[in-house]
Amino acid sequence: MKRKNPTSASDSQILPLLEFSKVVNSSLDLSFILGTLLLTLMGKLLITKGVVLLKIGPKKFSVKYGKGVSKELLLIDLVVPRESKKNFSVTSSDSKGYDKLVQTGINRFFPIITHDNVIGYVAVAEHAQRPISKENEQFVDTILNISAAAIEKGLAFDELKDVNRTLDGRVQQLKTLFELGKEFSGVLERERLLKLFSLTFMGQVGTNRFAICLKEGGSYYSRVSSEFLEKDRNVLCALVTAPMFVSQIPKAKKFQELKKHAVKEKISAFIPLQLQNEVKGVLCLGEKLRGGEYTENDLEYVFSLANLAFVSLENSRLFKEAIEKQKLENELLIAREIQQGLLPGMLPTIHGFEISAVNISSKQVGGDYYDAIPTGDGKYIIVIGDVSGKGTPASLLMANVQATVHALIPFNLELSIATARINDLIHRNTSSDKFITFFWGSLDPETKKFRYVNAGHNPPFVVRANGTVERLTEGGLILGIMKTFVPYQEGSVELRSGDSVILFTDGVSEAMDINGIDYTEERLERFVQTLNGLSAEKILTSIKNEIQLYTAGAPQSDDITLVVFKAR
Fold first, then answer.
1. Beta strands 475-476; 449-455: pairing state
2. What are phi and psi of 492, to 5 degrees?
3. What is the pLDDT of residues 490-527, one digit of tens each?
4. DSSP label at residue 71
5. Residue closest to 442 by CA, chosen among 479, 491, 477
6. pTM (2 d.p.)
7. Distance from the Cα of residue 356 to its chain's centroid
8. CATH assignment of 343-567?
9. Does the pLDDT at position 5 exceed 70?
10. How far is the C-alpha of 512 from the C-alpha of 523, rounded, in Å?
11. Which of 420, 422, 487, 414 has its CA nearest to residue 451?
């Protein structure tokens, strides 16, 4: 009689093995392959319990399929002390790593090997009274050798399906973000944007508990207390520079209060809101409505979604600011037109004198004022003033001064008395931080006499025909500082042919160059002495050009006003 080869299957087993090989290798469905393998072995070994474990990491295996065991046992993970390329048994006294299986009676393990590496085990419940024979062990080894390649293909196919599912999910997320981007970009009203974001967030992410905490104040929240935002705003914006779970909050003491509040408010993760790579705020993300934990992929998607909405919110804010700015600029333009209307459109013709003036505001509207007003007795009132500050407030006060001057002239009061009345009116109707430097005088063309009062203004220059210079200093306090207790003093000067009077505001003498150095009155005095013999208009133009040359490259720091009149 011919002896059987102990290392190969018997002739009666060849056809079933070929059929088994055909079945398992014709499918890429891992569950089908594992089910076919396990049922075939259990039927051959007459065993009622068995599982298939597949490797998921170093010495770590997961139960992927089972028969005759509880549902709780399926999909558990095991960390085994060693991997064996030979079949082995585990007893209750030596069950470390296998204890959950041993407790159910599963005690015999057969390795699944491919490319000389263990990729899993088939584990069965071997009955002590009916141990598996050597012949059946060989059958199991053969079945596992046949199945190994199919299992490997099934694992690769499952991995490919997971990659495809992930890719499909990412494509769907990108499509959703694209659609939401179009929706967000079409909305400019802040409240409507926040409502759209809230609904989108609940629908796409699956939570109705969230909060937007902005770095520079302001917040928006749903079912999260405002107290949480106020307490932890600064810590949040400093800590969160990338998406992070609450569990990842550092253990440093300064962050523990934040963590305690986040847990109390049922916050799961934080998402930074960025603009030009700078964190401008933080989105606090609540728990999932459907349960479970957020994944890293979830946080990436929420990061994209939240920042898409945040950019739209910022655009909404910038659009609103642009509208407000344009509105303000339009109002300032109107104010400038009104203010320019308050300044004399054309200077009067004064017999025996030339007169010229200019006003250059540093802003759209300014606080400088000049005027030349004929009186009923053939004389002319010449005025220059400088209101403290710049912009609209200064221009409004300047308009008040202009109206008061025009209202007082018909009363033909002495300049000192009229100045006191202007001072008291301004003091009574303005705050203590508002004041006016003011100079005005009455020019008599017949006598060429100029009477004046200087209320704290830069003393004008009188440049004589021979080149000498005098200053007009008589007067009193700046207007608006306090009520008039000491009368204003009136000064006078006799002008002769060729004499010039140059009135200016401190925007001339304090004009700064690119290094921030003032032009100064001393330098102005030396310069005007070089202009002797020129007409009033040329004197004014020369001073203006001199200041512009000095300040070239530097922004205009103050309003510039000049008035020049000259006796012929």
1. parallel
2. -150, 155
3. 999 999 999 999 999 999 999 999 999 999 999 999 99
4. G
5. 491
6. 0.54
7. 52
8. 3.60.40.10
9. no
10. 13
11. 414
The whole-angstrom separation of Cα 144 and Cα 36 is 11
Residues 513, 515, 521: CA angle, nearest 5 degrees: 45
Q: Which CATH superfamily, name and number, covers 11-159?
A: GAF domain (3.30.450.40)
The dihedral of CA 215, 218, 223, 228: what is its sign?
A: positive
Quote the longest CA-to-CA distance of the chain. Answer: 159
One of 3.30.450.40, 3.40.50.12780, 3.40.50.800, 3.20.20.190 is the CATH number of 186-318, namely: 3.30.450.40
Q: What is the DSSP string of 492-553?
A: EEE--TT-EEEEE-HHHHT-B-TT--B--HHHHHHHHGGGTTS-HHHHHHHHHHHHHHHTTT
Question: Identical fold at 11-159 and 186-318?
Answer: yes
Query: What is the gyration radius of the CA atoms in the chain, in angstroms?
Result: 47
- Per-domain residue ranges of the chain: 11-159, 186-318, 343-567
pLDDT tens across 230-263, in order? Answer: 777 778 888 888 899 998 989 888 888 888 888 8
Note the Cα 200 to chain centre separation in Å.
21
Q: How far is CA 422 from CA 29, 406, 440, in A?
A: 99, 11, 12
- Structure tokens given for 17: 């093995």
Residue 25's H or E segment, with its range, is helix 11-25
Give the CA dihedral 204, 205, 209, 211, nearest 10 degrees: -90
d(CA 460, CA 457): 8
Q: Which residues sit opposite 267 in a β-bridge?
A: 286
